[in-house]
Design a protein that fits this description.
The protein is mainly β. The chain is built from 3 helices and 9 strands; from the N terminus they run αββββββαβββα. It has an 8-stranded antiparallel β-barrel with strand order 1-2-3-4-9-8-7-6. The relative contact order is 0.20. It binds manganese (II) ion (MN). Manganese (II) ion (MN) binds near residues 40 and 97.
Length: about 200
């Protein structure tokens, strides 16, 4: 399938340890999400949502916020393979996205109001077309309801979205990005750099 074509085109798999472009046919009752902290030429956080065998992906320069007053720019990027959820490490110099990656948060998510995974996927596919997603996250750092809303800016490719917390029992003015370690290995970006270079 052509779905992961952009992912494949941007990378040289003889050089990068990132997962190969492979579609997932995983059957599970819930959809997963992952947020990777990625220290590339510019530090950002990559929000990835499992949908139809791939991870729909957005790069969030400032990272997510639990404060409903914050509207965090989220730039839609190429679909990533499902296996990318497990990637933590170094993308070598000279490669696309060169730098360190940690698995900053992960968990399951769904469309708000969906009664099962099938309905959630349908609502998310529709929301992607419409440019408006209403999502509930069940992560370690990121919890509760969020909106992901497409904006119409000067960006010619129209990839700009906003990631906004809804007010609920999980909203907070504390800076969630001050929690700076991998949810899997407890390593910081700096730890990954020093251990693998
Ligand atoms: Mn990235």
């Amino acid at each position: 399938m052509a779905k992961l074509k952009d992912y494949k085109t941007k990378r040289n798999f003889n050089e990068t340890p990132e997962p190969k472009p492979k579609l997932s046919n995983r059957q599970a009752s819930e959809s997963i999400f992952v947020i990777q902290k990625h220290s590339a030429s510019h530090l950002h956080y990559d929000l990835r949502l499992e949908l139809n065998g791939v991870l729909k992906s957005w790069a969030i320069p400032k990272g997510p916020s639990l404060n409903p007053a914050d509207k965090r720019l989220a730039i839609m990027v190429e679909d990533h393979p499902f296996d990318y959820r497990n990637f933590e490490g170094i993308i070598p110099k000279g490669n696309y996205g060169a730098g360190a990656v940690i698995i900053w948060d992960e968990g399951v998510y769904s469309a708000i109001g969906a009664k099962d995974k099938k309905e959630s996927e349908k609502m998310i596919s529709k929301g992607l077309e419409k440019g408006h997603l209403k999502l509930a996250f069940y992560g370690n750092k990121i919890k509760g309801e969020f909106a992901l809303i497409k904006t119409h800016t000067s960006d010619k490719e129209d990839r700009a979205w906003l990631f906004i917390k809804k007010s609920d029992e999980f909203s907070s003015e504390d800076d969630v990005t001050s929690l700076n370690r991998s949810i899997r290995t407890k390593r910081s970006i700096e730890d990954v750099f020093s251990s693998e270079t």
